Amino acid sequence: MKIIKVKDYQEMSQKAAELIIAQVKKNPKLVLGLATGSTPEGLYKNLIEDHRSNGTTYKQVTTCNLDEYIGLPKEDHNSYYAFMKGHLFDHIDVLAENTNLPSGEKEDRSAECAAYEALIHEAGGIDVQVLGIGGNGHIGFNEPGTPFDSLTHIIELDASTREANARFFNSLEEVPTQAITMGIQTIMSAKEIVLLASGTAKVEAISKLLSGEITEAFPASCLHQHPNVTIIVDEAALNENK
Ligand code: GLP
């Protein structure tokens, strides 16, 4: 596990963007695993900026997002589909047909889970997966207790996760109770993983992660078993702010 210590959110976002841009340049057909949440917003801004100024192209890139809420229509501004369109896809030259998120709207949920796994497999597997981290150590929407051998599945969101995400909704009641998410094994199958963490809200999660203990009670701890993980973390998340 490689740890890149940065000053703040801005530097975290820049470093992450440099890493992704270098990979896209090296392999124009990159399969990029993407995340939502406040953490990667700055990374996406930097990718858009670079696309506009330097012309980095995503025409052959395929993207696969980690997760989606169950029950929110795609058009809802809180869907992760809408988030990705608004924060990235509409502003770079990635082809809409090459952007993928699991669907939270399908009636046959287990078929959708299997189909998403098959889609990733057919794309050749994820080359680089971007991750944030939940306060309780979740990655994607894999809440504490999720088996490390899990594939894409439906999960009941923890109360703490719904509370953390309530800031985007009008009320806590509006936050969906379930999500569809890549499993831990799906994430661990990525060739390279980049986890971003910024801010004091992540101090406890980062300190648990860096303690090195590997347990399903703390989902992100699986990353210690992956051969190519980079953590880009700022001083606040490391509790090093003076
Ligand atoms: C969300 C997402 C995760 C994200 C995490 C942290 O619920 N499903 O992919 O990493 O919570 O979010 P944030 O970056 O807003 O702190």
Q: Can you put this structure into words, describing what you see?
A:
The active site is at 67 (proton acceptor), 136 (for ring-opening step), 138 (proton acceptor), 143 (for ring-opening step). With 242 residues, the protein is of the alpha/beta class. The protein has one domain: Rossmann fold, CATH 3.40.50.1360. It is 31% helix and 17% strand. It is built from seven helices and ten strands. Strands 1-10-9-6-2-3-5 form a seven-stranded parallel β-sheet, with helices on one face. The protein has a three-stranded antiparallel β-sheet with strand order 4-8-7, with helices on one face. Strand 2, helix 2 and strand 3 (62-65) form a beta-alpha-beta unit. The two termini are 26 Å apart. 2-amino-2-deoxy-6-O-phosphono-alpha-D-glucopyranose (GLP) binds at residues 35-39, 66-67, 132-134, 140-141, 161, 165.
